[in-house]
């Protein structure tokens, strides 16, 4: 935050409110292991949020009412203003800007680093010389025999151990090859048996399906035969009765008989009636 320019208007000074940091709600006091940490993934309840907002509003309203009820310093008279003064025992000058002073200095130019000298350890003790003639300390041919015996013995023992290890490894490899061959043979036999069992199961399932299909066809054939026999027995008397009813109703008739009944008989009756009427009229005229 920068300082305002000198020609800018001075903002209104607000009263400084001092408070104890330990009463701030944002400061955590006590053991933090018992804090209830709300996971990020949980969704807050709308009712709980509304309740918290109303509680904060009520607390803020009570705080404002309490501040209004507290006694405040009366307003300054015209032409004066309230300022903050120090009441400590030792006064200290308060300034908005720290005093700054420019100072210059000159350093020497950097010199090349000299090469690192070779490390030579410091000499300790005293130099002493002595003379040893040939044969004074030991005889090489005599003293070397036990060393050669130990070296040759160790060499032979190591060679024997290596030969025995090679033979053991060869036996192990032979056992491994025999075990691998036996295992492969057993696996092949197991696969053959599994394949045979699979074929038996498939053949069994196929036979079962074939038998079920045959039984289903036999059942369907039996049902069809029974239905056909029932239909024949049911329709044996139905067809004649239907034809009789249709014949009685006039749907089935003899064309000649029907022509005689509808055409010839009415004409014959009409002619007979006319003849009878003429005869009756002639008799009436004679009478």
What does this 3D model show about the protein?
There is one protein chain. By secondary structure, the chain is mainly α. Among the domains are: 141-252; 253-287. The protein is 58% helix and 0% strand. It has three helices and no strands.
Number of helices: 3
List the secondary-structure elements in sequence, H or E: HHH
**Amount of beta strand:** under 5%
Biggest beta sheet summary:
none
Basic shape = flat
Low-confidence stretches: none
Rg computed from alpha carbons, rounded to a whole number of angstroms: 67 Å
- SS-based structural class? mainly alpha
Number of strands: 0
For the termini, the CA-CA separation is: 158 Å
DSSP helix fraction = 55-70%
Protein name: Radial spoke head protein 3
Organism: Aptenodytes forsteri
Family: Belongs to the flagellar radial spoke RSP3 family.
InterPro entries: Radial_spoke_3 (IPR009290)
Compact description:
By secondary structure, this protein is mostly helical.
